[in-house]
Write a structure and sequence with these properties.
Low-confidence stretches: none
Number of helices: 12
Order of helices and strands: HHHHHHHHHHHH
Helix content: 55-70%
Structural class: mainly alpha
Largest sheet: none
Radius of gyration: 18 Å
Distance between the termini: 17 Å
Number of strands: 0
């Protein structure tokens, strides 16, 4: 099976079996999306969704958050991973949004990455989720699943994975493909014990054929 054939089969399977694939983070606008994605770094979406309702109620806009102190924000996010640095980044991010971007979340990766605490993965997620752009964010799930399935080969870091994936996935499919791979890794192709017995992709999976 060629790489192109593998992509074709796997994408077709996802399209049939997971026609709706969306972020499990809860948010109502671009600003809330950005905040939630920043908080989700090395943290579960479930945990983030537990803290954001109160956080968004207290700071519904970039202007409101920009006037807070990191200690104040910390009280809302202290149960997520790395709460101290995240609370500092959220305040600094909101301040820059207000000062440089008029309180509007940028719609491109380069500008997003000028915000404190926003790296390439976070910027890619926001562009894909909010603006439906062909950006492929690579987290630990996508990095693992792509290599196991054979969508990537000997990828050494997230950027290499991203580069290989966008080479073969059609642009209009990339935003949804991000969620396909992420959710598959979260619930089926898990790190320690992949649930191959319940996976519909074993016929195309390089990991399974080598077991």
């Amino acid at each position: 099976m060629t790489t192109a054939q593998r992509y074709k089969h796997i994408l077709a399977w996802f399209e049939t079996n997971m026609p709706v694939a969306e972020s499990e983070l809860v948010f109502a606008n671009p600003f809330q999306c950005l905040v939630a994605v920043m908080l989700s770094a090395q943290c579960t979406d479930k945990r983030v969704n537990m803290v954001t309702p109160a956080l968004f109620a207290a700071y519904p806009t970039p202007e409101a958050m920009s006037q807070a102190t990191s200690d104040e924000v910390f009280e809302y996010v202290k149960s997520v991973s790395y709460p101290r640095s995240k609370s500092e980044h959220l305040v600094q991010m909101a301040q820059r949004l207000v000062e440089v971007y008029g309180g509007q979340v940028p719609d491109n990766i380069d500008d997003l990455q000028t915000l404190q605490g926003v790296g390439r993965k976070t910027a890619n997620v926001v562009c894909a989720v909010i603006w439906n752009q062909p950006t492929m964010a690579v987290d630990t799930h996508i990095f693992r699943v792509s290599e196991r399935l054979g969508l990537t080969t000997h990828s050494k870091n997230p950027l290499q994975t991203e580069t290989q994936l966008v080479k073969y996935i059609p642009e209009n499919v990339i935003p949804k493909a991000h969620h396909w791979l992420l959710l598959h890794g979260r619930y089926v192709c898990q790190a320690r014990k992949p649930r191959c017995e319940t996976c519909g992709l074993t016929a195309y999976c390089r990991y399974f054929t080598k077991k």
